[in-house]
Amino acid sequence: MISKNDVKYVASLSRIHLKDEEVQALTQDLERILGYIKNLEKLDTSHVEPTSHVLPLKNVFREDIIKPSFSQQEALKISVEQQNGFFKVPKIIE
Amino acid sequence: MNQQTQQFETVIGLEVHLQLDTKTKIFCGCANAFGHEPNTLTCPVCLGLPGSLPVFNKQVLEYGIKIGLALNCTVSSFIKFDRKNYYYPDLPKAYQISQYDMPVARNGFIMAPSQNGESKKIRIHRAHLEEDAGKLIHDDAANCSLVDYNRTGTPLMEIVSEPDMHSPQDAYEYLQMLKLTLQYLNVSDCDMEKGSLRCDANISIRPVGQTNLGTKTEIKNMNSFKAVKEALSYEIGRQESVVRSGGVIVQETRLWDENKQMTFSMRSKEEAHDYRYFPEPDLVPFTVSEQKIEEIKTALPELPLQKQARIKERYRLNDYDSFILVQDPLVAGFFEECVTLYPDAKKICNWITGPVLQELNAKKVPITELKLSPKNLTTLIQKVEEGVVSNLVGKDILKNILETGQDAGDIIQSQGLAQVSDDGALLKIVDELIKENEKVVGQIKAGEEKAIGFLVGQGMKKMQGKANPKKITELLKRRILDV
Fold first, then answer.
1. B357 located within any domain
2. Who is most buried in A90, B2, B82, B261, counting CB within 10 A?
3. Global pTM?
């Protein structure tokens, strides 16, 4: 059973602010999703290899060769605030 | 037993983060380098821009396997990456790509030699690969933080020990040996000051005899092995006093304050530790063949303890000397090259572990950057052993070589440092000594042969150190005792 508190907790971990009616709706949605998983659990998967990726691919590597990076100016374009070449953010340590 | 007299046992496990010295970052082609201008080594992958995809650096996996094998781990044949989710400004994607349940290596151990000469086996729980986060600089005055994302995506290997250590000294010895082993592998510069090697500690106490582990605290922000030792000592004292006064240890992260020499609670919210790991969908899994593992195993260099055993046996050195020599693979190599040029290994070892190491420690450079070559050092040692120069003058010549790189023989010749071994010149000095020191001569004649040493010293002074002391002793004995 998914409780409203579970939804509020996950939302807070994800820094999402939810209104009460949204919490209500999401609780029901999650409950349905987990219900579907319950259905899946009825299947016998004892002979199925665990899947860690849906693509039938493995061992996609890159050689250790340097490629050009963004310039400082380019990198900082996406910053909200900057200072002396750094991204400037609200103070984080309590 | 009451709480005041209760004896406690300490249990310590360590997590070491090692930056791997590859050319590029773990999941993109940005250069993996330290000390650049802020935010000049980033790309869409580093900055977590939408649509960018990570691609795994082949070299990182090879280093990871190499480390795993050197730590006697089982290397996994199948590995995958997972997302560790948390929000912090140094992590642009709001998740770190790490390994959760399928690390590169697990179940290893290292043997850490301790002060009393015995070795302790410290088990390695697991070692996994992950990406480093950016660097945050806190500006208290401006009430803001500044972020440099150059470090984002630097390949890290996290090495987690089992809780097999029981004192700060144990932890120190484990770290020393771990660092030395990693240095031998040439996979990282292991420089704690630069942050290429970082260490966090899990520590708990329990009443002696209890088998269940006590509640642990995690100690962070220790910037040297010495700090690890100090922080653990402090934390043991703190936990004991909490328990003795009837309190309970709270599971939490504490920061070591180097200046105050205390640990402080980070007071972070508990949910900060709910990382909601899940498989990284942007990376496919990786397989490691038996053949690949064998290949890397065969190419492993001789490791510190193997080298020590071989050097000790081959050159008939004692435990201490051989241990000191292998503390730096370059020094051990220098020593072995010297031995091919001059046969007295013990003499060479004394010169290297004495004055040469002193110089290395003072200058903080590798031995290969000194102006001293094995050829030059062995020439010098030979000159000292042949009595051409005294031991003392030899040390001065070494200083000269270290400054100028000149050949020992040339220095002796150009500065006229060769000892006078010529009987004629020395006899004159000896006769002077006998005349000036009647009382001492009397003592020597009366059987106090030790007093000769005083006269030899005076003679060396007269010759400004350039006389052969053996020769003076010989002549003095001949003159005074007629032998």
1. yes
2. B82
3. 0.85
